[in-house]
Design a protein that fits this description.
single chain; about 325 residues; alpha/beta; Helix Hairpins; Rossmann fold; Alpha-Beta Plaits; 3 domains; six-stranded parallel beta sheet; about 55% helix
């Protein structure tokens, strides 16, 4: 709500007092309207000037009423305005309006539901990949953290249809349900799927029972942090050098490689060409690791003679710049 709405009752009261005062002086004292307005102004602002003309007893009574009611109302309005300025409500409202406009302009973005440890990591990865996103979280502290950064956010329940609509779920590309509560993730998934049948949903689950519920709710992928942590720890114990190599390649401090999925659209110049003919590696520097075919199959070892077809999804690895260049080439 606009914080200035708190001033409306006081302003309406002042308007009534002004109208009554000007009309009263005009009819009671028989003064012209300009003299009546002047008398009202010097009375309300208590400047201490003499009356325009001598007042009758009725005029004096009207002046006392104006002083008691008008000055009190003006002081109340000024106090409310000062309180709003001190609390930052006016400037906070303007910032919030700018944030709402920023969220309304989002398209093909992702929605992160819950901003705990997992949500923070997801946001960090999106920032690195320069992927647009909006955060939904019920904690007011989230606003304090994200507002200075200019990150789009909404404070509220991600399971609420109204909040999801504010997050532009109809135009969103994907949603991450990463709350600590399995039940909350199920509700979020149900609400998101009902609002957008095409959105890609990745949900967090703590166990098999929750995974089954999330699948029925409409999640496309379910991730169990405990399962991934266990597999990761086992890999570090069994293949420590290989694990360190992959970490260095994918998340090294000075060498940042990324994986990306690039779909081959209609009229792309690479359609019906082999990898050798398309010269993907030579022109972009990125490497094709696999090709996902429209029928659901995978070419896990693409060769130079492997043909690219419309609707294929290329799984490629490279730096951010190389992947951006390849995406522009293919599209």
């Amino acid at each position: 709500m606009n914080p200035l709405a708190r001033l409306v009752p006081a302003l309406i009261a002042l308007l009534i007092i002004v109208a009554a005062g000007v009309t009263g002086y005009h009819f009671i004292e028989g003064w012209p309207f300009f003299d009546s307005i002047y008398m009202l102004v010097i009375t309300l602002f208590t400047v201490g000037f003499e009356e325009v003309q001598p007042l009758s007893d009725s005029g004096r009574l009207l002046t006392m009423v104006i002083i008691i009611s008008g000055v009190g109302t003006a002081i109340y309005a000024a106090g409310q305005l000062g309180e709003m300025i001190i609390e930052g409500q006016i400037f906070g409202y303007r910032r919030r309006r700018r944030m709402e406009k920023k969220i309304r302009e989002l398209k093909d973005h992702y929605i992160i539901c819950s901003f705990g440890r997992v949500g923070h990591k997801v946001a960090q990865e999106f920032e690195t990949a320069k992927i647009p996103y909006v955060v939904i979280d019920s904690k007011p502290e989230t606003a304090v953290e994200l507002e200075p950064k200019g990150t789009p956010y909404l404070v509220g329940s991600a399971a609420s249809n109204g909040v999801l609509k504010e997050a532009q779920i109809e135009k969103a590309k994907g949603l991450i349900a990463c709350a600590d509560s399995d039940m909350e993730n199920v509700f979020v998934t149900l609400s998101a799927r009902s609002a957008n049948k095409d959105i890609y949903i990745v949900a967090r689950a703590s166990g098999q029972d929750a995974e089954d519920k999330l699948k029925m709710a409409g999640a496309n992928r379910i991730i169990s942090p405990y399962f991934i942590s266990g597999r990761r720890m086992a890999a570090l114990a069994i293949r420590p050098v290989t694990s360190d190599f992959l970490d260095t390649v994918m998340h090294g401090e000075h060498l940042e490689f990324n994986l990306r999925e690039i779909e081959v659209p209609e009229k792309s110049f690479v359609i019906n060409k082999t990898l050798e003919e398309a010269q993907i590696r030579q022109k972009s520097g990125a490497s094709v690791l696999a090709i996902h075919k429209p029928d659901g199959g995978f070419n896990l070892q693409p060769l130079a003679i492997s043909k690219i077809e419309c609707g294929d999804i290329l799984i490629v690895i490279g730096t951010q710049e190389q992947l951006d260049l390849l995406e522009r080439m293919v599209k």
